[in-house]
Amino acid sequence: MLKKNSLGKGLGAMFPDLLEKIGDKPLLVTCGIEELVPNRYQARKDFDPGEHKSLVASVRKSGIIQPIVARKFDGGYEIIAGERRWRAAQEAGLKNVPVIIRDAGDQDAAVFSLIENLLRANLNPLEEAEAFHRLINEFSLSHEAISTTVGKDRSTVTNALRLLKLPKEIREALARRTLSAGHARAILALESAEEQIRLFKAILSKGLNVREAEDFARGKKKTKTVKKKPVHDEHLAELEKRLSRRLMARVNILSRKRGGSIEIRFGSPDELNRLLEVLLTK
To answer: Which of 40, 153, 166, 198 could form a disulfide with 170 if both were Cys (CB 3.0 to 4.6 A apart)?
Structure first.
């Protein structure tokens, strides 16, 4: 079990057996670039073009300094950690790359991939949420188990997973990083998809910060004051009838604990003028 403070120390510190020999396998092997395939559990969907370009330039100049970690797969090797280095090596024209062979199961491959991305470069909020969701669905990990494994608070894991409930339009904005996770959590405070979309558009059009978005959401969630039904007894009903006959218009008398009102309805400007004449004539 990993310690929660292990993040930031590197994969070697968290998984020292990555650097040990597996049986009689050598510590380090050299593989043809075509022998490797991407990790099927890769959490990252979006590879930043600028970062990739810089990494390609570095690989061209110095080669791959940190070996790729992989496991045997279908006559070749499946990458566990280091897919960005492998992609850069391809573009840089390398034919062979250094690889550490790891005897890992599917769950290990999924977890290692997620942790490497959390260590090397932040996943966008949606990628992180989808990775957590996959660990739950495919490996039956609890929120607590994921929290311990990836070194994040359980509440962080739970809040990340809630992002997957947002409408598609908002999830896509999270993936593009045009919406922050803080904004998304403010949106989640609203129950209906219509209200969520409305706040999302307000955030983009008005440039609302997270606190302003939270204030907006709280305002929408305030319980509307329930209007007390007016007291309406037989005496008032009789008065309404008499006034209606006298004015030749519908009259409602609203009586509350303290005071009340008389409502006279009209359907046109001419009818209003007639009523005013009746009421103002002494």
So the answer is: 166
